[in-house]
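Re-run with default settings, no changes from the original entry. Doing this only to confirm the output is reproducible before filing.
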Amino acid sequence: MENIPTKVDGETVSASIFNQQVDELENVITSSGITLSNADLTQLAKAIANYAGQINYCLDTGAANAYVCNVQGTFKASTALTAGLTIRFRAANANSGASTINYASLGVKNIKKADGSSNLVAGDITTTQDTEVIYDGTNFRLKSFGTLEIGKFNPTDISVSGKLSFSASATTTISGGAIAYIATNMVIDTEGLAATDNLDTITGGVDGDILILSCASNSRAITIRHLIDNITTQSLSNITLTNIIDRVVLTKDNNYWVPTSQATMKDYLSNKITNGGYYYLPNGLLLQWGISDLLGNGAYSTITLPITYSTACLTAQVSGYSGGSDSGDDILPTIMSYSTSTLRICMNIPVGAYRALWQTLGY
Protein backbone atom coordinates (compact mmCIF):
# COMPACT_ATOMS: atom_id res chain seq x y z
CA MET A 1 0.00 0.00 0.00
CA GLU A 2 1.33 3.42 -0.87
CA ASN A 3 1.94 6.06 1.77
CA ILE A 4 -0.93 8.52 1.25
CA PRO A 5 0.61 11.47 3.18
CA THR A 6 3.28 11.74 0.49
CA LYS A 7 0.52 12.08 -2.09
CA VAL A 8 -1.51 14.75 -0.30
CA ASP A 9 0.14 17.75 -1.90
CA GLY A 10 -2.81 19.67 -3.21
CA GLU A 11 -3.40 17.24 -6.04
CA THR A 12 -6.27 14.76 -6.33
CA VAL A 13 -5.68 11.30 -4.80
CA SER A 14 -6.03 8.70 -7.51
CA ALA A 15 -8.72 6.05 -7.31
CA SER A 16 -6.12 3.22 -7.19
CA ILE A 17 -4.41 4.72 -4.17
CA PHE A 18 -7.71 5.29 -2.39
CA ASN A 19 -8.86 1.76 -3.18
CA GLN A 20 -5.72 0.36 -1.57
CA GLN A 21 -6.93 1.70 1.77
CA VAL A 22 -10.27 0.00 1.36
CA ASP A 23 -8.64 -3.24 0.20
CA GLU A 24 -6.39 -3.28 3.27
CA LEU A 25 -9.37 -2.90 5.60
CA GLU A 26 -11.30 -5.57 3.73
CA ASN A 27 -8.36 -7.97 3.97
CA VAL A 28 -8.22 -7.52 7.74
CA ILE A 29 -11.92 -8.37 7.96
CA THR A 30 -11.96 -11.35 5.59
CA SER A 31 -8.70 -12.87 6.88
CA SER A 32 -10.27 -13.00 10.34
CA GLY A 33 -13.05 -15.23 8.99
CA ILE A 34 -15.76 -12.62 8.53
CA THR A 35 -17.76 -12.32 5.31
CA LEU A 36 -18.09 -8.73 4.13
CA SER A 37 -21.53 -7.18 4.56
CA ASN A 38 -22.65 -3.60 3.99
CA ALA A 39 -25.33 -4.15 6.63
CA ASP A 40 -22.78 -4.42 9.45
CA LEU A 41 -20.62 -1.41 10.27
CA THR A 42 -18.81 -3.15 13.16
CA GLN A 43 -16.95 -5.74 11.08
CA LEU A 44 -13.54 -4.11 11.48
CA ALA A 45 -13.91 -4.08 15.26
CA LYS A 46 -14.99 -7.73 15.21
CA ALA A 47 -12.00 -8.62 13.02
CA ILE A 48 -9.60 -6.95 15.45
CA ALA A 49 -11.21 -8.90 18.31
CA ASN A 50 -10.85 -12.15 16.34
CA TYR A 51 -7.17 -11.46 15.75
CA ALA A 52 -6.61 -10.64 19.40
CA GLY A 53 -8.22 -13.92 20.45
CA GLN A 54 -6.86 -16.29 17.81
CA ILE A 55 -3.70 -15.03 16.14
CA ASN A 56 -1.25 -16.55 18.62
CA TYR A 57 -2.89 -19.99 18.84
CA CYS A 58 -1.64 -22.79 16.62
CA LEU A 59 -1.63 -26.56 16.26
CA ASP A 60 1.69 -28.38 16.18
CA THR A 61 2.60 -30.31 13.03
CA GLY A 62 6.15 -31.20 14.03
CA ALA A 63 7.71 -34.03 16.01
CA ALA A 64 8.51 -34.63 19.66
CA ASN A 65 11.13 -32.07 20.80
CA ALA A 66 10.95 -30.28 17.42
CA TYR A 67 7.65 -28.40 17.31
CA VAL A 68 6.31 -26.63 14.23
CA CYS A 69 3.19 -24.48 14.23
CA ASN A 70 1.44 -21.87 12.14
CA VAL A 71 -1.59 -19.66 12.63
CA GLN A 72 -4.94 -21.25 11.88
CA GLY A 73 -7.28 -20.59 8.95
CA THR A 74 -6.80 -17.38 6.99
CA PHE A 75 -5.30 -15.36 9.84
CA LYS A 76 -2.07 -13.55 9.00
CA ALA A 77 0.97 -14.32 11.15
CA SER A 78 3.69 -12.02 12.46
CA THR A 79 6.41 -11.33 9.93
CA ALA A 80 9.24 -11.36 12.50
CA LEU A 81 9.99 -12.67 15.98
CA THR A 82 10.07 -9.81 18.47
CA ALA A 83 10.67 -9.91 22.21
CA GLY A 84 7.39 -10.39 24.06
CA LEU A 85 5.71 -12.39 21.31
CA THR A 86 3.49 -14.97 23.03
CA ILE A 87 2.18 -18.08 21.33
CA ARG A 88 0.05 -20.93 22.56
CA PHE A 89 0.04 -24.34 20.89
CA ARG A 90 -1.26 -27.87 21.32
CA ALA A 91 1.60 -30.32 20.87
CA ALA A 92 1.12 -33.44 18.77
CA ASN A 93 3.77 -35.23 20.83
CA ALA A 94 5.00 -34.88 24.42
CA ASN A 95 8.61 -33.83 24.81
CA SER A 96 11.30 -36.15 26.14
CA GLY A 97 13.98 -33.52 26.72
CA ALA A 98 15.38 -30.28 25.28
CA SER A 99 13.04 -28.89 22.60
CA THR A 100 12.73 -26.32 19.81
CA ILE A 101 9.87 -24.57 18.01
CA ASN A 102 9.49 -23.01 14.55
CA TYR A 103 6.61 -20.55 14.57
CA ALA A 104 5.15 -19.30 11.26
CA SER A 105 8.32 -20.41 9.43
CA LEU A 106 10.26 -17.63 11.17
CA GLY A 107 13.10 -19.91 12.24
CA VAL A 108 13.87 -22.67 14.71
CA LYS A 109 14.28 -21.41 18.28
CA ASN A 110 15.05 -23.21 21.54
CA ILE A 111 12.34 -23.55 24.18
CA LYS A 112 13.75 -22.93 27.65
CA LYS A 113 12.26 -23.12 31.09
CA ALA A 114 10.93 -19.93 32.67
CA ASP A 115 14.43 -18.98 33.88
CA GLY A 116 15.53 -18.60 30.23
CA SER A 117 18.57 -20.86 30.54
CA SER A 118 17.48 -24.36 31.64
CA ASN A 119 16.54 -26.90 28.99
CA LEU A 120 13.20 -28.64 29.18
CA VAL A 121 12.95 -32.08 30.75
CA ALA A 122 10.61 -34.92 29.87
CA GLY A 123 6.97 -34.06 30.45
CA ASP A 124 7.30 -30.27 30.35
CA ILE A 125 5.20 -30.32 27.16
CA THR A 126 2.22 -32.66 26.99
CA THR A 127 -0.45 -33.53 24.43
CA THR A 128 -3.33 -33.12 26.89
CA GLN A 129 -3.09 -29.35 27.37
CA ASP A 130 -1.89 -26.23 25.62
CA THR A 131 1.66 -24.97 26.06
CA GLU A 132 2.30 -21.22 26.20
CA VAL A 133 5.70 -19.72 25.45
CA ILE A 134 7.11 -16.17 25.28
CA TYR A 135 9.93 -15.04 23.01
CA ASP A 136 12.69 -13.19 24.89
CA GLY A 137 14.66 -12.03 21.86
CA THR A 138 16.78 -15.19 21.72
CA ASN A 139 14.71 -18.16 22.89
CA PHE A 140 11.13 -19.02 23.70
CA ARG A 141 10.44 -19.53 27.42
CA LEU A 142 7.69 -21.52 29.10
CA LYS A 143 5.28 -18.99 30.51
CA SER A 144 5.39 -18.83 34.28
CA PHE A 145 3.28 -17.30 37.05
CA GLY A 146 5.68 -17.10 40.00
CA THR A 147 7.20 -20.59 40.18
CA LEU A 148 4.35 -22.31 38.28
CA GLU A 149 5.37 -23.10 34.73
CA ILE A 150 2.31 -23.28 32.50
CA GLY A 151 3.88 -25.87 30.24
CA LYS A 152 4.65 -28.13 33.17
CA PHE A 153 1.39 -27.81 35.08
CA ASN A 154 -0.90 -30.78 34.53
CA PRO A 155 -4.34 -30.98 36.19
CA THR A 156 -3.70 -34.67 36.91
CA ASP A 157 -0.60 -33.78 38.94
CA ILE A 158 -2.34 -31.87 41.68
CA SER A 159 -5.73 -31.94 43.40
CA VAL A 160 -6.96 -29.84 46.27
CA SER A 161 -9.94 -30.95 48.38
CA GLY A 162 -8.84 -30.15 51.89
CA LYS A 163 -5.41 -31.64 51.20
CA LEU A 164 -2.62 -31.36 48.65
CA SER A 165 -1.73 -34.42 46.59
CA PHE A 166 1.01 -35.02 44.05
CA SER A 167 1.03 -37.40 41.11
CA ALA A 168 2.18 -41.00 41.46
CA SER A 169 5.89 -41.48 42.03
CA ALA A 170 8.31 -41.98 39.14
CA THR A 171 11.05 -44.58 39.40
CA THR A 172 14.56 -43.93 38.12
CA THR A 173 18.05 -45.41 38.45
CA ILE A 174 21.22 -43.57 39.42
CA SER A 175 23.68 -43.28 36.55
CA GLY A 176 27.18 -42.09 37.31
CA GLY A 177 26.03 -40.57 40.57
CA ALA A 178 23.23 -38.58 38.94
CA ILE A 179 19.47 -38.61 38.32
CA ALA A 180 17.21 -36.29 36.31
CA TYR A 181 14.35 -34.44 38.00
CA ILE A 182 11.23 -35.81 36.28
CA ALA A 183 8.53 -35.75 38.99
CA THR A 184 7.81 -34.43 42.48
CA ASN A 185 7.78 -37.95 43.97
CA MET A 186 10.73 -40.06 42.85
CA VAL A 187 11.82 -43.55 43.88
CA ILE A 188 15.50 -44.08 43.11
CA ASP A 189 17.48 -47.28 42.77
CA THR A 190 21.18 -48.02 42.69
CA GLU A 191 23.10 -48.34 39.46
CA GLY A 192 23.24 -51.98 38.39
CA LEU A 193 21.25 -52.94 41.55
CA ALA A 194 24.41 -52.50 43.60
CA ALA A 195 24.15 -52.87 47.37
CA THR A 196 25.08 -49.19 47.81
CA ASP A 197 25.32 -46.14 45.61
CA ASN A 198 25.91 -42.39 45.89
CA LEU A 199 23.69 -39.58 44.64
CA ASP A 200 25.72 -36.43 43.92
CA THR A 201 23.84 -34.69 41.11
CA ILE A 202 20.21 -33.91 40.28
CA THR A 203 19.80 -32.43 36.80
CA GLY A 204 16.84 -30.33 35.69
CA GLY A 205 14.35 -28.32 37.68
CA VAL A 206 14.16 -24.61 38.40
CA ASP A 207 14.40 -22.67 41.63
CA GLY A 208 11.35 -23.39 43.78
CA ASP A 209 10.82 -26.96 42.51
CA ILE A 210 10.08 -29.61 45.16
CA LEU A 211 11.45 -33.17 45.12
CA ILE A 212 10.55 -36.03 47.47
CA LEU A 213 13.10 -38.87 47.31
CA SER A 214 12.84 -42.45 48.57
CA CYS A 215 14.80 -45.62 47.87
CA ALA A 216 13.52 -48.60 45.91
CA SER A 217 14.67 -51.43 48.19
CA ASN A 218 15.50 -52.19 51.82
CA SER A 219 18.56 -54.12 50.60
CA ARG A 220 20.09 -51.29 48.53
CA ALA A 221 21.24 -48.15 50.36
CA ILE A 222 21.59 -44.75 48.72
CA THR A 223 23.76 -41.99 50.18
CA ILE A 224 22.90 -38.40 49.23
CA ARG A 225 26.27 -36.67 49.44
CA HIS A 226 26.81 -33.10 50.54
CA LEU A 227 28.43 -30.69 48.04
CA ILE A 228 29.98 -33.24 45.74
CA ASP A 229 28.04 -31.47 43.00
CA ASN A 230 24.69 -29.61 43.25
CA ILE A 231 23.24 -31.07 46.46
CA THR A 232 23.91 -29.26 49.72
CA THR A 233 22.54 -30.45 53.06
CA GLN A 234 21.73 -28.08 55.90
CA SER A 235 23.55 -30.38 58.33
CA LEU A 236 26.64 -30.30 56.06
CA SER A 237 26.70 -34.10 56.22
CA ASN A 238 25.53 -36.96 54.02
CA ILE A 239 22.04 -38.48 54.22
CA THR A 240 21.58 -42.22 53.71
CA LEU A 241 18.33 -43.89 52.64
CA THR A 242 18.28 -47.52 53.79
CA ASN A 243 14.58 -48.34 54.00
CA ILE A 244 11.66 -47.84 51.61
CA ILE A 245 9.86 -45.72 54.19
CA ASP A 246 12.78 -43.26 54.38
CA ARG A 247 11.96 -39.88 52.81
CA VAL A 248 13.96 -36.74 52.00
CA VAL A 249 12.24 -33.57 50.78
CA LEU A 250 14.40 -31.20 48.73
CA THR A 251 13.78 -27.82 47.12
CA LYS A 252 15.86 -26.18 44.42
CA ASP A 253 17.39 -22.91 45.53
CA ASN A 254 19.99 -20.89 43.61
CA ASN A 255 20.68 -23.90 41.35
CA TYR A 256 21.32 -26.22 44.35
CA TRP A 257 19.04 -28.95 45.66
CA VAL A 258 18.64 -28.45 49.42
CA PRO A 259 17.02 -31.03 51.75
CA THR A 260 14.40 -29.22 53.85
CA SER A 261 13.19 -32.22 55.85
CA GLN A 262 13.92 -35.92 56.21
CA ALA A 263 12.47 -38.94 57.98
CA THR A 264 14.57 -42.10 58.12
CA MET A 265 13.98 -45.41 59.86
CA LYS A 266 16.58 -44.45 62.49
CA ASP A 267 14.78 -41.17 63.23
CA TYR A 268 11.44 -42.95 63.28
CA LEU A 269 12.54 -45.54 65.80
CA SER A 270 14.22 -43.00 68.08
CA ASN A 271 10.94 -41.10 68.26
CA LYS A 272 8.81 -44.14 68.98
CA ILE A 273 10.87 -46.41 71.27
CA THR A 274 9.62 -45.32 74.68
CA ASN A 275 7.68 -46.93 77.55
CA GLY A 276 4.63 -46.78 75.34
CA GLY A 277 4.51 -46.26 71.63
CA TYR A 278 4.00 -47.67 68.19
CA TYR A 279 5.90 -48.54 65.02
CA TYR A 280 4.71 -49.03 61.44
CA LEU A 281 6.35 -52.07 59.88
CA PRO A 282 7.36 -51.81 56.19
CA ASN A 283 4.64 -54.31 55.21
CA GLY A 284 1.92 -52.07 56.63
CA LEU A 285 1.40 -53.77 59.99
CA LEU A 286 1.33 -51.60 63.12
CA LEU A 287 3.05 -52.75 66.34
CA GLN A 288 2.02 -51.03 69.61
CA TRP A 289 3.21 -51.48 73.19
CA GLY A 290 3.00 -50.06 76.68
CA ILE A 291 2.95 -50.54 80.50
CA SER A 292 -0.24 -50.61 82.57
CA ASP A 293 -0.94 -48.75 85.82
CA LEU A 294 -0.32 -50.52 89.15
CA LEU A 295 -2.94 -53.25 89.56
CA GLY A 296 -3.89 -55.27 92.64
CA ASN A 297 -5.26 -58.80 92.68
CA GLY A 298 -8.45 -59.07 90.66
CA ALA A 299 -8.18 -55.49 89.38
CA TYR A 300 -9.13 -54.70 85.80
CA SER A 301 -7.64 -52.08 83.51
CA THR A 302 -8.90 -50.92 80.08
CA ILE A 303 -6.01 -49.58 78.04
CA THR A 304 -6.63 -47.25 75.10
CA LEU A 305 -4.20 -48.02 72.28
CA PRO A 306 -2.03 -45.09 71.11
CA ILE A 307 -3.41 -45.52 67.58
CA THR A 308 -6.70 -47.18 66.59
CA TYR A 309 -6.25 -49.94 64.02
CA SER A 310 -8.21 -49.07 60.90
CA THR A 311 -9.09 -52.70 60.07
CA ALA A 312 -8.26 -55.22 62.81
CA CYS A 313 -6.13 -55.98 65.85
CA LEU A 314 -4.65 -59.38 64.96
CA THR A 315 -3.11 -60.38 68.28
CA ALA A 316 -2.42 -59.11 71.80
CA GLN A 317 0.08 -60.27 74.43
CA VAL A 318 0.61 -59.39 78.09
CA SER A 319 3.17 -60.31 80.75
CA GLY A 320 3.80 -59.38 84.38
CA TYR A 321 6.35 -56.76 85.43
CA SER A 322 7.66 -56.65 89.00
CA GLY A 323 9.70 -53.51 88.49
CA GLY A 324 12.93 -55.25 89.42
CA SER A 325 11.63 -56.98 92.56
CA ASP A 326 12.33 -60.69 93.11
CA SER A 327 8.92 -61.15 94.70
CA GLY A 328 6.91 -60.99 91.47
CA ASP A 329 7.39 -64.58 90.26
CA ASP A 330 3.66 -65.34 90.40
CA ILE A 331 2.34 -62.24 88.57
CA LEU A 332 -0.24 -63.57 86.10
CA PRO A 333 -1.99 -60.79 84.13
CA THR A 334 -4.70 -62.01 81.77
CA ILE A 335 -6.12 -60.45 78.60
CA MET A 336 -9.90 -60.38 78.96
CA SER A 337 -10.63 -58.79 75.57
CA TYR A 338 -9.11 -56.61 72.86
CA SER A 339 -10.39 -54.57 69.91
CA THR A 340 -9.05 -52.15 67.30
CA SER A 341 -8.83 -49.42 69.94
CA THR A 342 -8.67 -50.97 73.44
CA LEU A 343 -7.13 -53.79 75.49
CA ARG A 344 -8.72 -55.04 78.75
CA ILE A 345 -6.44 -56.68 81.36
CA CYS A 346 -7.12 -58.48 84.67
CA MET A 347 -4.32 -58.88 87.24
CA ASN A 348 -3.90 -62.12 89.21
CA ILE A 349 -1.42 -61.84 92.10
CA PRO A 350 -1.37 -63.08 95.70
CA VAL A 351 -0.42 -59.77 97.32
CA GLY A 352 0.61 -56.20 96.42
CA ALA A 353 0.19 -54.36 93.17
CA TYR A 354 2.16 -54.71 89.97
CA ARG A 355 2.18 -53.56 86.37
CA ALA A 356 1.63 -55.46 83.13
CA LEU A 357 3.65 -55.15 79.89
CA TRP A 358 1.45 -55.38 76.79
CA GLN A 359 1.80 -55.30 73.02
CA THR A 360 -0.56 -55.61 70.07
CA LEU A 361 -0.20 -56.16 66.32
CA GLY A 362 -2.71 -55.17 63.67
CA TYR A 363 -3.43 -53.02 60.65
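The radius of gyration is 34 Å. The helical segments are 15-31, 43-54, 265-272.
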